[in-house]
Amino acid sequence: MRSYFGKILLLLLILMVNGVSAEQPAQDTMFLRVDPDDALGGTATDLLKDIVYIPLENTPASVVGEIAKLEVVEKYFIILDKSLDQVLIFNKDGSFHAKCEKIPGLVKNSAMIDNFNYNVFGDFAIQREKQQIVVRTNLDRENLFVFNYDGGFSGKIPLSKKNNGTRFWGYAFLNGDTSIYHISPTIFTQESDETGTYELYLSDNFSSNFKQEIPYEQNNIARGMDVLVNLAGPFYYSGIKNSCFFTRSYDYNIYNIDANGIKSVYKVLLPISYSVPIDFLVNEEKYRSKRQEYLQKNNQLVYVISNIYSLGNKLIFTINNNKYSKNKVFLYNIQNSTVFSLLNISPDSSSFFLPIVNKHNSIQACDGHYLYSSFSSLELFAAKEEIQGKQPEYPPSLKKYFALQNRKSNPVIVKLAPKANM
Q1: Regarding predicted confidence, which is higher, 92 or 289?
Q2: Which of 202, 228, 277, 362 is most enclosed, with most CB atoms within 10 A?
Q3: What mean pLDDT is predicted for residues 272-300?
Q4: Cα(380)–Cα(409) distance, integer angstroms
Q5: Where are the domains of the chain?
């Protein structure tokens, strides 16, 4: 028993060292104890009240290479396709609506045609109040470019150079007046003391900065390129107006942010066997330029928490490490502290025996009512062949899809609603 409590105390110490500034009020922090090896599973019928498969229309104009990023707005699915360098808009029934193909005045170097780092469409964020898709391009770091939901180009937003305003890695819109962007600690220099202690900036439409959040002591944060783990995010919208979640590398805190700054924090308490060492971010003599090698050798250690969404009293998130495991995508019931592994939900007749959550893509979006994942046609057709003996009763949309499409067709979006007692 003494050993058990000792482990808990050590976990708390790890999280305090890697955690948010002590300025955060204690009442705004919730501790979530998660042991990936003890997470619950179950059948689709037991745990999910809705499972809907939505094939995306497959025409020459609407070909999707991959769903690198998915945002769900009132009428549309908006998709970043890095492989074909485009942003596509589909109606909620999967029919094609429009796409963003070009930014006026920008031409991709043909020598870089297969390099994602030089895409015209590097990232996008949704300005929901104005119904805009705001694009970040790797070909012009001085501006953001604006499209409407019909795929029409409508102008650009010049970026302020103050506080590294042209060098951010991720961004999101919190409301009509406020946006937030993330600066990697790897870009700071000795000359940038004013900004070197911050990662997050709240911005007034990207023209000026009026608030700074999540301060670091400048001498207590590593600056090597291996400090940043660049996954999806780092901002995640869950259908909760004027707020989003944020996470950062080697930190097991989940920050809920609104236009005033940090609103609340979830501290994920992982077992020691899943947690990076206490000094992992600050001991440069030991870890500088060796962090990736260390994580490869210790492949169970979690290097970032991603894909964070909130749905009622449930928090959904993914832990990322270098070890193959099905225990990576979790649903945490905040009311009763129950933890479910979404990859351990067994398909049954309610899911037509098809896979439910993609182990590679995780949960990709949330609109406040549903969670969304996606599968390639290659994956779904392979799954269909494996379950032929079960003779599932497909709905009309899936019957048509399997009859008329093939393994090279467009992806399929899966819309999920957990049961209230999950």
Answers
A1: 92
A2: 362
A3: 89
A4: 10
A5: 20-40+63-68+160-369
